[in-house]
Amino acid sequence: MTKLSHDFRSYKLEDRYAMETGRVFLTGTQALARLMLDQARRDRTAGLNTAGFVSGYRGSPLGAVDLEFWRSRQRMQDNGIKFMPAVNEDLGATAVLGAQQAILDPHCEVEGVFSMWYGKGPGVDRSGDALKHGNAYGSSAKGGVLVVAGDDHGCVSFSMPHQSDVAFCPGSCRC
Question: Which segments of 21-152 does DSSP mark as H helices, in order?
């Protein structure tokens, strides 16, 4: 019989974010929020002075991401993670692009910014300029960006079916 690393009778909902070892129970959107918290913890453990930044479009199939970040607002703030929902995907992607350039400011108080952008599939197309420029510029040496797209292949919530792999992997890619 396998010995569990945690007594689940004492498991609390806040454990999904507070526990640093062992098994936690998460929804997909909670996993995205947890990912940002884990990166903040990893950076602190490595002695880095970084900040986190999250932006995206609330109308996305990933729209519950904003609800999760609002629910955990204080925990995010305590870990140096700023959540700024955008009016559309373009503004969110541009804000994330700008966050990677924060260290160019001589008054910047951190060594790097780890970021996450989220949007719906058609928003990937719409935000192509900011996403392509971000890809070309890269991230700060002690930063990084996770881009998350919510696609709707069956046209359940969009006006048309959509998948983002074409935008993320243009012609020369062999995925």
Answer: 28-45, 64-71, 73-78, 89-100, 121-126, 128-137
- Which amino acid belongs to residue 57? Y
Q: Which domains does the chain have, with CATH numbers?
A: 27-168 (3.40.50)
**Each residue's pLDDT tens digit, 128-155:** 899 999 989 999 899 999 999 888 777 7
Task: Give the gyration radius of the chain's Cα atoms.
Answer: 18
**pLDDT digit string (tens) for 31-88?**
999 999 999 999 999 999 999 999 998 876 676 899 999 999 999 999 999 999 999 9
Sheet order of strands, 81-83 included: 81-83, 50-56, 112-120, 144-150
The reported pTM is 0.87
Q: For residue 156, what are the CA distances in angstroms to 29, 59, 74, 75?
A: 19, 14, 34, 33
Only one residue has tokens 């609800």, namely 67
Stated as kind and residue range, the H or E segment containing 168 is helix 165-168
Half-sphere exposure (Cβ direction) of 100: Cα atoms closer than 13 Å: 24
145 φ/ψ angles, rounded to the nearest 5 degrees: -135, 135
